[in-house]
Amino acid sequence: MKQIQHLLGSAALIGTGAFSLSLGAAAPAESIKPLASPELVFEEANGLLAFEAEHFYQQTLTEKRAWHITSSKSAPDIKPDGDPPHVAGASGGAYLEALPDTRRTDKDKLIDGENFSNQPGKMAVLHYKVRVHAPGRYYVWVRSYSTGAEDNGLHIGLNGQWPESGQRWQTVQKQKWAWDCKQRTQQVHTGVPMGLFLDIEKAGDHEILVALREDGFEFDKLVLAKARDFKPEGLGPAVKVAAGKLPEPFPFVAAPPPPTPSAAAAVPAGAFVMKAADFPLAHTGYYLDRGQWLAINPDKNKEAKTGAKFPLEDGQYNILLQAVGEEDGKSQYELLVNGKTAGTFECPLSAQAFEEGANFAKTFAKVDLKKDDLIEVRSRIASEDGVEHSRARWSRLVFTAADGRPLPAATATESDAPAPPPAPAAPLVLPRQPDGDGSVKIEGELKQWHKVTLTLNGPYAHERDNDPNPFTDYRMTVRFEHESGSPRYEAHGYFAADGNAANTSADAGTRWRAHLSPDKPGRWTYVVSLVKGRHAALAETPPGVAPQGAQAAPGNGKRGEFTVAPTDKTGRDFRAQGRLQYVGKHFLQFAGSQEYFLKAGADAPENLLGYADFDGTYSIKRRQARAGEATPGGLKTWAAHAPDWKPGDPAWKNGKGKGLIGALNYLAGKGCNVFSFLPYNVGGDGQDVWPFIAPEDKFHYDCSKLDQWGIVFDHATTLGLYLHFKLQEQENDDNRRGDKGETGAVKAALDGGNLGPERRLYCRELTARFSHALALNWNLGEENTQSAEQQREMARYLRYVDPYDHHIVVHTFPGWQDRVYPQLLGDKSVLTGASLQNEWEATHQRTLKWVTESAKAGKPWVVANDEQGPANLGVPPDPGYAGHDGKAGKGEKAYDLHDIRKHTLWGNLMAGGAGVEYYFGYQLPQNDLVCEDWRSRDKSWDYCRYALEFFRAQKIPFWEMANANALIGNSKNDNSRYCLAKPGEAYLVYLPHGVKTGAAELDLKGAPGSFGVQWFNPRAGGALRGGTVAEIAGGGKVSLGEPPADAGEDWLAVVRKR
Prior knowledge:
Strand order of the largest sheet: 53-52-51-50-47-44-43-54
Radius of gyration: 31 Å
Number of helices: 11
Distance between the termini: 74 Å
Helix content: 10-25%
Structural class: mainly beta
CATH topology of the largest domain: TIM Barrel
């Protein structure tokens, strides 16, 4: 504390509880002067634009009120100002406040035109220059600190105008720095979420205006976001500069930690607990908060009720309801048995944001219960100030026998709680070695889009250490920033043993690493943060802010620079294309080449990483095989593909890895561009893949194994193979089992499905080690059964720990799609796509449904078909492979690779889908668990290549096209024929069954002009060919004629405006 005061001087005091620091005073005339020059222009990139409040270049209309800069160096000496400075936690070490502040409560006099202005642009106007590349609607997020109901609003303008959609920005969050995007209306005084936006109609330079509405408002940062579901977190996204230079930031002052909730009332010995998190959520009005409390969103519901059957024997019980005290209101609770009230409770106010404990619990004595009675809890929100509301949170019901007898042992504990990690035999693995010297080394090809590795020679650690644990108790982040100020990445780091563990199998050392795949050539700087503290790696803090209680570790604060050259790669190597990004469309786009992406490749085997050449990998005893299923007898060798390995390809430990590296070579050589895998399948089908040092130890990661995985993944990037991370599978994603969702303890599930320490660490380790890859998605899980709230929380955390914001999807059972996906569409989650599982012949219809539904929700999803049913069959092998006839199924239901080509591959593409991955059914050769030979589907890969090459070679603008089956008479969207169209410009007509009467007719009403007709052969690929009709006239329904040959086979008609 003395050091901070010495640095900052002393005049104003910032205080929050035990936290305080002193500031120097600034004269009023100085605190309203611009820090930025008129040449400073902020830049929009990928639909995001951000700037610091204090970086205005001009302030006007300051006669009555003005925006004053408060920084970590000084505070304005303006009276009256009824609250202390709040620079702690402010982005850039500074913020603005509209002063003087004469109206802090509704009891203070409102003087229009002096301390309040409902008309925008009349008082204290700030000016900021911005450059926008992607015109459209931008939602306005403001980071503010509100201390009451009368200092929580402002106005936003554009180019001298004050559109209605930018007026009356409002927040009801208080006593903390917080983001909001709400507009106050007559009907909703607390603000309509996402009601505050600007429509920027043209690309180019513009001026953003911010005007006072209420004095006393404290304004830290502003973000414009095109994506409706985007919400800034922490200090918000990095500021990007198009011209000029940013002012030097002020020293950042970390915010004091939030109060720690007190523990819930102790559970008596011999009690039985029903946790709130285990009660049903669907249609109850509740959501799951922090993985443990049921809570009500006041914007959606005022009251909620849920219930479950009582599982114990008949008797008389005392029932304790553990509520959560909140500072905003006294929530009401009611306990019901079979619909009748057993008792009520009003929860007292808390002095903290929320806390549990005996003061917030109520015991209902001597309640008569019978086995299977319906136990229900109803709760209702409340408000102390009429503005902000409690959320009526509660955590559990605790049952004790009224006569004091212990309950049966089988029911006396929370049996579905995840088991704690095994107790350490010793805090540290001995003997110890000295720490490193703190030096930093930059390695790799220093070129645009290439992997650049920063290695710190830091604290000595062993992967089996427990106190401190190198994975949970050390937090490494590296800020990489381009010389222009944009981009800036906060890349998470990881413990790397001796720095060469892939080859040495080291489990200890002093090397700590972070990776960057730089977007731009030029000079890059880095700053290393490495701190140590209990579970420091698991905390969510803003960039540059250490978790509470963490201490600097050797190497912390190291900084330097390096220069990146332009990429020299060409062809399918992703380093020639750049990072693949979600851009608000149904297709991903490369940041470098700006090309859009379609995929086709292998979904099987899911246990691709169950490979004999990886360290620490072995098979666990598997479940009983299903009828006709071939289960692996051991680990994969990928021996069939060892000859596909080439000199110069990577390997490890004197030649290991050639089989799997060769398999990737083969797949890329066939023209495919994606493969998928599970990084964790303990408890599932394969049980031979995990990233830990042991299957049951979820807090210690295997450095050498993960480095070897990294060699494989990096090679895939050079081959142009997209990485599909299926992060978990149905059997280990939560405490639910199978497609019936039956509940029960699942030992392998990370935190039982919640976002707890196991899941946080798992996501952090994988993103730290592999998110630099240019083309990947994070799939929440295969056949995922987590609740919508658990899915949202996991996806949100992935977005937090992945500096590159890769594509996030979820896969679920075919019969669960209609109940899972709607809860995640639009702004209901950060998901950007769906990974579909469905019967092979339903691909077109299911793809079209979720393409359409996601667009309606305002956030187009990238929709891929990644698993084809039925599960026992999937995509069949080629005819003749291992003596197989190439047929899947029997009788009339039999199908082959041609049917897959027609209705799975082209069915997805013609619905506006993003592509396919092929699954191999468990009763077929080289199936989903035993596959080690991708040549088993050699011909199917050819068909994939033909399709991908067609779209690329013919420059088909598929990202601008949409399904239009009605134009070819298929308004039912069945499998008779498909159409994809950019109306008036280009039409693709796919005929799975060849030309039949009416099948080759296209309705061009409303599309006048002349159109050329050519034909593509999906069975052989190659150039387009002419048919019986070369040119057609628009304006009505026209015949496309017939293809050049084999009219009864599948063909694609290509119709383009001349």
